[in-house]
């Protein structure tokens, strides 16, 4: 057998890949933790490990591979197949597509819950609510309980959902979560408890699960020894990527499935843990080695293949100040003279101009736009830059922040599909019915009530009295729902059916109907890639496509465009040049009221993640003043900012510090001359009449 693929790995990578594999067999081995520093080939190593297991006889159908995003799992599956094909040649054909258990925790959770629904008294046809739907349902319940009418302000729907989600994901009592993370809501503990109880009952009545349920139900199943053994026994090998960004519930699931750790591999980098706001805990990775009867093997990947030495040195200096971490000394042999730059600019507009100038310069020198990225802490930080790029005709794609699927018209069509899939889903029904003119919340509620308890909700919809003044539109709507429910048009043509019905409403509701219609055509195209309505809805709800671009539409894939991304969405990626916006206190770290060590450390890791995306060139930009977000219209409030506290004066020698624009002697002379001008304006104006 050709083992050549192992030669491409370094010693530590090879040890991780071959752990527990011996003499052509790959039995479930002792648990393995791979601590992989930034750019140390984590993805590569994990893909090789899966391939190596398969090549040595592991059954690909009995391998579970969980990644942070669907994109990452698709990429991983492709790599595994490629390596297997190299090694096995013709014999690899039989393996194509056999690696069936790859996906995110939430996606795999949905599959497992559907498959075992009957054993846990659930209806397998449940629909899944995304965060916004969940907040809407929380709001409905909040109104029904009368909490929105309380004298002092009850927490908003978003805060309620965030509290609920943290209690579930962090496996912590409500009182503790309130005390630690939401002290200003602590007075509402009893009401919140009632609210959450009613919210859960509403989800059950409507047969919907929210994101958190996908983990919660799975974790609860793992509490039953028979189910845990049955489900855990589905796989010989369970591999988890980005383990630093999992939460308590995910660790409970994993340990429930494999209590002795046999066959378990987790890979992660504690220095890159950036999802604590979603209750991820770096403790999972720190505690993993001692979680089993036999301690896990720990291997560390310390060689960085991505960044030049000066960039790595600066990033290492930033992370060295974190309070708790596995010790790693990342090194590289990619020598370079170019230090990362700290660039001082006057304000947001100069920041944008500097970047455009540099991006164009780099392109002149052969770095395509696609190999350059601008990263920022919060999606709204890129506003000025987007304006400048549009003005200068530089195409870009933005990741993070508002998504294609968040736009109202796309949500309308998806709600229609969801309502057809599960007619008890009140949030979807509520949205869809109110698209009709003259149907308001009261009539929508009446219709939904009639459907709620009927054995066949669509039959009930067809019989219910039409809302007053809904006119002919109502009959058209009912017909369409009936057709969708019977699947008469077939998948994915039914999206066309909906579009046809929706078009007149779209034109009535939105001025820019034409642009929106093209989005819907795009949605139809995306839908064509999914085998069924149910799979389409599940996958899209769990992991929506991330890119949005300016109004010109997403550039074609073979075109060249600049990448704009939040740091969170830049995880796992790399570019030749990276620019980081607003490297100032107040942005990184973001304005944190409490400034607790844990939160500050997470912000430090964010900067570290941003810096370690760069291969050859890194610019951290420090505007001296920046606009305050959340002002009305074109508000001009700004604050004076200081360089981020994560780069202290002792580290400055690792950077090239420069100011921009560069002031030439002539400019300076002109500015000085301007300062000398003294006019007695009052006298001059008086003299006009003298
Ligand atoms: N053994 C190797 N020899 C040469 N190059 C390698 C090797 N392993 C990885 N690389 C290269 O190193 C770079 C980083 O790899 P990869 O993206 O897998 O890192 P990572 O550990 O997932 O990074 P991060 O955690 O920072 O996102 C890639 O360009 C990859 O091709």
From TrEMBL:
Q: What CDD domains does this protein's entry cite?
A: DEXQc_UvrD (cd17932)
The UniProt catalytic activity note for this protein reads:
ATP + H2O = ADP + phosphate + H(+); Couples ATP hydrolysis with the unwinding of duplex DNA by translocating in the 3'-5' direction
GO annotation, biological process: recombinational repair
The family database entries (InterPro entries) matched by this protein are listed as: DExx_box_DNA_helicase_dom_sf (IPR013986), DNA_helicase_UvrD-like_C (IPR014017), DNA_helicase_UvrD/REP (IPR000212), P-loop_NTPase (IPR027417), UvrD-like_ATP-bd (IPR014016)
Superkingdom per UniProt: Bacteria
Keywords tagged on the record: ATP-binding, Helicase, Hydrolase, Isomerase, Nucleotide-binding
Signal peptide (residue range): none
Keyword Cell wall biogenesis/degradation part of the UniProt annotation: no
Give the enzyme class: isomerase
GO MF annotations in UniProt: 3'-5' DNA helicase activity; ATP binding; DNA binding; hydrolase activity
Q: Which GO terms describe its cellular component?
A: cytosol
Q: Where is the UvrD-like helicase C-terminal domain?
A: 309-572
Q: Where does ATP bind?
A: 36-43
Task: Tell me where in this chain the UvrD-like helicase ATP-binding domain is found.
Answer: 15-308
The protein's Enzyme Commission number: 5.6.2.4
What does the sequence similarity comment in the record state about its family? Answer: Belongs to the helicase family. UvrD subfamily.
- Read off the PANTHER family from this record: DNA 3'-5' HELICASE, UVRD / RECB / PCRA DNA HELICASE FAMILY MEMBER
Which protein is depicted?
DNA 3'-5' helicase
Q: Which organism is it from?
A: Gluconacetobacter liquefaciens
């Amino acid at each position: 057998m050709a083992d050549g693929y192992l030669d491409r790995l370094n010693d530590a990578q090879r040890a991780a890949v071959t752990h527990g594999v011996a003499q052509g067999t790959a039995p479930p081995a002792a648990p393995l933790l791979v601590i992989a520093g930034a750019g140390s080939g984590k993805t590569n190593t994990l893909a090789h490990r899966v391939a190596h297991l398969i090549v040595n006889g592991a059954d690909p159908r009995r391998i579970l591979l969980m990644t942070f995003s669907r994109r990452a799992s698709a990429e991983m599956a492709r790599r595994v197949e490629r390596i297997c094909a190299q090694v096995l040649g013709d014999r690899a054909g039989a393996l194509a597509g056999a690696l069936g258990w790859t996906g995110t925790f939430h996606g795999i959770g949905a599959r497992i819950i559907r498959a075992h629904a009957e054993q846990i008294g659930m209806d397998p046809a449940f629909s899944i609510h995304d965060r916004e739907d969940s907040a809407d349902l929380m709001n409905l319940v909040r109104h029904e309980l009368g909490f929105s009418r309380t004298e002092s302000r009850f927490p908003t729907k978003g805060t309620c959902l965030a509290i609920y989600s943290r209690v579930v994901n962090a496996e912590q009592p409500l009182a503790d979560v309130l005390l630690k993370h939401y002290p200003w809501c602590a007075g509402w503990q009893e009401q919140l408890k009632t609210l959450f109880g009613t919210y859960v009952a509403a989800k059950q009545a409507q047969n919907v699960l929210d994101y958190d349920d996908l983990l919660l139900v799975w974790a609860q199943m793992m509490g039953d020894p028979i189910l845990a053994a049955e489900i855990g026994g589905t796989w010989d090998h369970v591999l988890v990527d980005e383990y630093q960004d999992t939460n308590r519930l995910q660790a409970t699931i994993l340990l429930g499935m494999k209590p002795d750790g046999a066959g378990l591999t987790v890979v992660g980098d504690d220095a890159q843990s950036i999802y604590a706001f979603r209750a991820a805990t770096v403790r999972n990775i720190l505690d993993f080695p001692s979680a089993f009867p036999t301690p896990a093997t720990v291997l560390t990947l310390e060689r960085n293949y991505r960044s030049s030495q000066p960039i790595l040195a600066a990033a290492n200096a930033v992370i060295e100040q974190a309070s708790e971490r596995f010790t790693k000394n990342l090194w590289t042999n990619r020598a370079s003279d170019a230090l990362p730059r700290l660039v001082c600019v006057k304000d947001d507009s100069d920041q944008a101009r500097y970047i455009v100038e540099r991006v164009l310069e780099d392109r002149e020198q052969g770095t395509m736009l696609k190999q350059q990225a601008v990263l920022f802490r919060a999606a709204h930080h890129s506003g000025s830059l987007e304006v400048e790029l549009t003005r200068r005709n530089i195409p870009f794609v933005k990741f993070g922040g508002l998504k294609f699927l968040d736009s109202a018209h796309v949500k309308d069509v998806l709600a229609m599909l969801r309502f057809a899939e599960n007619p008890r889903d009140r949030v979807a029904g509520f949205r869809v019915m109110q698209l009709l003119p003259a149907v308001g919340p009261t009539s929508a509620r009446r219709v939904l009530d009639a459907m709620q308890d009927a054995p066949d909700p669509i039959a009930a919809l067809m019989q219910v009295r039409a809302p007053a003044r809904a006119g002919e539109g109502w009959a058209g709507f009912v017909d369409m729902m009936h057709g969708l429910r019977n699947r008469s048009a077939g998948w994915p043509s039914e999206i066309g059916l909906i579009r046809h019905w929706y078009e007149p409403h779209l034109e009535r509701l939105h001025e820019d109907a034409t642009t929106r219609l093209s989005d819907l055509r795009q949605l139809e195209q995306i839908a064509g890639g999914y085998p069924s309505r149910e799979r389409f809805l599940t996958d899209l709800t769990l992991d929506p496509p991330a890119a949005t671009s300016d109004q010109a539409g997403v550039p074609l894939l073979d075109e060249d465009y600049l990448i704009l991304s939040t740091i969170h969405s830049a995880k796992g990626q790399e570019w030749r040049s990276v620019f980081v916006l607003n490297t100032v206190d107040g942005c990184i770290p973001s304005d944190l009221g409490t400034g607790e060590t844990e939160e500050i450390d997470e912000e430090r890791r964010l900067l570290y993640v941003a810096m370690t995306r760069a291969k050859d060139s890194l610019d951290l930009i420090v505007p001296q003043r920046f606009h305050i977000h959340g002002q009305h219209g074109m508000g001009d409030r700004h604050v004076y900012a200081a360089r981020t506290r994560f780069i202290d004066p002792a580290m400055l020698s690792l950077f090239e510090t420069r100011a921009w624009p560069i002031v030439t002697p002539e400019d300076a002379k002109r500015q000085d001359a301007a300062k000398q001008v003294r006019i007695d304006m009052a006298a001059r104006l008086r003299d006009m009449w003298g």
